[in-house]
Amino acid sequence: MSLDFACACGTVRWSVDAAGARSGTHTICYCRDCRAWARSLGIGDQLVPGGGLRLFITQPGHMEVTGDTSALVCTRLSPKGLERWSTACCNTPVASHVPGWAPMAGVTAASLPDPSVLGPVRLIYGAKGALPGHDAPTRNRGVKRLMIRLLFSSLWGHVTGRSRRTPFYRDGARPSTATAHR
Ligand SMILES: [Zn+2]
Ligand SMILES: [Zn+2]
User: Fold this and answer.
1) Can you give the pTM of this predicted structure?
2) Which structural domain, as residue segments, surrounds residue 28?
3) Per-residue pLDDT of the chain (182 residues; tens, 9 = 90+)
4) What's the CA-to-centroid distance between 145 and ligand 1, angstroms?
5) Which of the ligands is closest to the CA of residue 7?
6) CATH number of the domain to which 29 belongs
7) According to DSSP H, which parts of the chain are helical?
8) Are 74 and 177 in contact (CB under 8 A)?
9) Which ligand is nearest to the CA of 12?
10) Ligand nearest to the backbone CA of 6
């Protein structure tokens, strides 16, 4: 079964195909950048206790973006930061995107009504950046597992050509809307 998402106003939709849904990693990232991004888009209230952002990590080649894709905008919190894609129509976060040899997309799942469709949380990341409180994690979990998974899925993705596919660049062009600000 695929995972289907839409922005708050319905202009842009994105999905992770069934193979991606099976192989992806349900993640909570407590890093400061994810939190700053979420807050800048007005979804600070959707962070989990400890200030974590719920994500589903997959390969961009498993994703599709439909609807008015011209509404996608890319922001970087620092010059070499992740590409953080959201929608201009209603400021809904879509995904953090890491292009390259081992491409990765952290699909934002903050507003998912039922996060159990993502399976159990297998990766806790950025624990050092968690807000203090009894719900805050003290250390990362599952990082090695994710690295191994990404390595193998990237290798296989190079065989099948999937590693070269991403829904975020049209005609292989780099994003022209990337801006650095802090
Ligand atoms: Zn929208
Ligand atoms: Zn993060």
Assistant:
1) 0.90
2) 3-169
3) 999 999 999 999 999 999 999 999 999 999 999 999 999 999 999 999 999 999 999 999 999 999 999 899 998 888 778 899 999 999 999 999 998 889 999 999 987 888 999 999 999 999 999 999 888 999 999 999 999 999 999 999 999 999 989 999 865 555 555 554 44
4) 34
5) 1
6) 2.170.150.70
7) 18-23, 32-40, 143-160
8) yes
9) 1
10) 1
